[in-house]
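Q: what sequence does this backbone want?
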């Protein structure tokens, strides 16, 4: 006959509890305690645990808690301190003693008396849960809770890892328990409690007691009163259910429970308890602010762009999870390209020329040619979450994947890209086309075949714009039908390939650019950063550089990390870029942008752009040292800029020159005057000898009859090796020569 145990023995009670609890978490704790040699009943220390748990990872003794990173401008000034989790790590001395005591009393009142496992607490919970027939009381010690929180912290935003860290399973409980046992040997109780208060989540994005005190009471944890400390301590069990903002009554009931526990364990006097219970919740809630909101001079959008770069560029980690972990842990020092003086000028221009209350908005990006460095990024509406204050976190300067929207149609600012493709393909710089006022899109070749718009009309801005025109005049006047005929000549494939070389292989929404005849008229949406970077290649004599925002970075251990490179490449021959610069100088001297200038008279090149219905207007202009793109339009949808008031000024119809142009001019005057006056390398473009109206234009490869058609005269022969206009050498046809209609 088996030996009988006394009815009231510990194991009998434990067995009864386990039977009734079934697979509950508390049963797991108890079984785990019994399964470890001499742990459950004897020492509750690590002395008799398995050898494999002798060494606990440092993540548990000194956890690498996520903290703020600092972003700097190019001069070393602080743009903002940013974080993935709002947390400030405190020492024991920086925490109010009543806060520490309240947390212990409500979560684990025997914390200073037991080891990693509180056997009395386990048995008490098992008995009460057995009586209730369900798991109504827990028994995890504060040390075990701390270990679980470390696992949750390590999981970060990885949902699978988070679920694994919080799964109610025996295996997880055993793992937590073993670590807790060793942890109690390596750290003092005060150290464990301090770590616990720094890591614990208190709701509303507040991690740790300092963030919680600031969030709910707008004060530091060292200044918490009895009722305030009690409310925060009570939140830990269920931050959602006891949320004082959403559920104030539940929060007060929970707070009062903690106050009564403090009284029960004689950590406050009856008088103190009475006063605390009578006190209102006293919530002084402070909304959690993304660190970028604190940035000055409108740098919040650039700050947010930097965040997207770190989270998306493979140089910061092979996987999205790796990059997220780097950002989440924080402690980074990120040094950027932004020039504070240029940023201030850009911000002032877009906010004074356009009001935040206007129905439209403006965005501006400045890029340094030859380096890809983003020097300024500004927009009219401030960075923030309060739409009632006209704030937004949508970065209108960048693509959707980097925190922006779906971009804006660039209009005629796309025409120079076709011109570059044409020159590279062998079309002479003084090429003429009939350029009627109105025509239908012709059939055009693509990289894969042909495209036919089947009679879709295209017309010039004014009925008086009737050709023939040569390229210089067509660019200055922005003649639509001229460039459609050039597009037919060159082919859509050549234009697409040039756009890709200039960083416009994809649109702002992430989709590939389409080979459609209206491409040259800028009907596909892009961002100001994309256009500024493309025009910076013209300024750098054909060298395109991928835009970069970060120059260097070090982690919390002051270890230097790799950063993205500009990956510069020659998108076109220098002479091709010189030709484009010559043409775009004509735009600012005698063309649609002739009213835009720098007060010191220096050379500027650029192109205006306006879309159908005046939904968007652009001016992208540059000097050899600085490329700047300005967009103006409806920030969240199509707003026709006709009969509209912008910045206090009335416009019957907005154009690129009179809408975004003055914004560009104001900012560029501010940053350029007093600096070196660089000049462009230009080419000689002979004056056009137009064919009389109604006569056919000269065929490609001639210049109105002045050339001899064999490559030895001014006209050149339009092939890949001809000399044009006094030594302007056309480079080899990178697109395989003519890919459009047959050349004559």
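A:
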């Amino acid at each position: 006959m088996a030996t009988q145990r006394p009815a009231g023995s510990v194991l009998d009670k434990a067995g009864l509890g386990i039977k009734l609890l079934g697979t509950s978490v508390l049963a797991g704790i108890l079984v785990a305690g019994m399964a470890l040699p001499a742990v459950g009943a004897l020492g509750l220390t690590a002395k008799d645990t398995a050898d494999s748990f002798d060494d606990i990872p440092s993540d548990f003794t000194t956890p690498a808690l996520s903290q703020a990173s600092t972003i700097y401008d190019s001069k070393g000034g602080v743009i903002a301190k940013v974080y993935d989790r709002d947390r400030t790590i405190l020492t024991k001395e920086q925490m109010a003693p009543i806060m520490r005591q309240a947390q212990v009393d409500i979560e684990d009142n025997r914390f200073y008396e037991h080891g990693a496992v509180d056997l009395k607490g386990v048995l008490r919970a098992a008995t009460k849960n057995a009586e209730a027939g369900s798991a109504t009381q827990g028994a995890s010690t504060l040390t075990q809770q701390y270990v679980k929180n470390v696992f949750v912290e390590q999981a970060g935003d990885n949902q699978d890892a988070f679920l694994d860290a919080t799964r109610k399973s025996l295996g997880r409980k055993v793992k937590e328990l073993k670590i807790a046992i060793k942890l109690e040997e390596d750290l003092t109780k005060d150290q464990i409690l301090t770590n616990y208060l720094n890591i614990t989540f208190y709701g509303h994005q507040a991690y740790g007691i300092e963030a919680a005190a600031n969030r709910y009471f707008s004060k530091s944890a060292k200044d918490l009163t009895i009722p305030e400390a009690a409310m925060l301590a009570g939140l830990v069990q269920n931050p959602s259910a006891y949320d004082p903002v959403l559920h104030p009554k539940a929060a007060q009931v929970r707070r009062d429970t903690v106050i009564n526990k403090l009284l029960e364990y004689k950590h406050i006097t009856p008088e103190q308890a009475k006063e605390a219970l009578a006190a209102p919740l006293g919530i002084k809630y402070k909304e959690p602010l993304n660190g970028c909101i604190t940035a000055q001079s409108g740098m919040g959008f650039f700050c947010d762009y930097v965040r997207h770069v770190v989270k998306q560029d493979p140089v910061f980690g092979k996987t999205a999870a790796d990059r997220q972990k780097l950002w989440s842990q924080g402690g980074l020092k990120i040094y950027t390209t932004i020039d504070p003086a240029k940023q201030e000028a850009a911000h002032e221009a877009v906010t004074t020329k356009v009001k935040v209350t206007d129905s439209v908005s403006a965005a501006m990006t400045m890029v340094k040619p030859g380096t890809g460095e983003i020097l300024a990024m500004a927009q009219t509406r401030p960075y923030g979450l309060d739409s009632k204050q006209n704030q937004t976190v949508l970065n209108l300067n960048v693509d959707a994947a980097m925190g922006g929207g779906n971009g804006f149609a660039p209009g005629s600012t796309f025409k120079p890209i076709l011109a570059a493709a044409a020159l590279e393909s062998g079309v002479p710089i003084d090429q003429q086309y009939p350029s009627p006022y109105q025509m239908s899109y012709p059939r055009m070749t693509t990289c894969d075949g042909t495209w036919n718009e089947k009679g879709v009309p295209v017309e010039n801005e004014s009925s008086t714009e009737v050709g023939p025109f040569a390229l210089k005049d067509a660019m200055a006047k922005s003649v639509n039908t001229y460039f459609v005929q050039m597009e037919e000549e060159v082919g859509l494939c050549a234009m697409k390939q040039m756009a890709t070389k200039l960083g416009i292989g994809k649109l702002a929404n992430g989709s590939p650019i389409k080979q459609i005849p209206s491409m040259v008229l800028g009907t596909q949406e892009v961002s100001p950063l994309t256009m500024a970077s493309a025009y910076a290649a013209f300024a750098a004599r054909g060298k395109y550089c991928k835009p970069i925002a970060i120059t260097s970075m070090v982690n919390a251990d002051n270890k230097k990390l790799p950063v993205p490179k500009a990956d510069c490449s020659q998108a076109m021959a220098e002479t091709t870029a010189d030709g484009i610069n010559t043409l775009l100088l004509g735009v600012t001297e005698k063309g649609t942008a002739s009213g835009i200038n720098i007060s010191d008279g220096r050379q500027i090149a650029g192109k205006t752009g306006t879309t159908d219905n005046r939904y968007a207007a652009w001016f992208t202009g540059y000097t050899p040292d600085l490329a700047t793109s300005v967009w103006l339009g409806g920030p969240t949808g199509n707003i026709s800029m006709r009969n509209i008031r912008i910045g206090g000024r009335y416009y019957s119809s907005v154009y690129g020159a009179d809408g975004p142009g003055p914004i560009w001019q104001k900012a560029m005057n501010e940053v350029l005057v007093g600096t070196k006056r660089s000049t462009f390398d230009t080419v000689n473009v002979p004056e056009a000898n137009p064919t009389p109206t109604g006569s056919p234009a000269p065929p490609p490869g001639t210049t109105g009859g002045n050339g001899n058609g064999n490559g030895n005269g001014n006209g050149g022969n339009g092939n890949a090796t001809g000399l044009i206009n006094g030594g302007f050498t056309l480079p080899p046809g990178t697109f395989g020569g003519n890919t459009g209609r047959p050349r004559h």
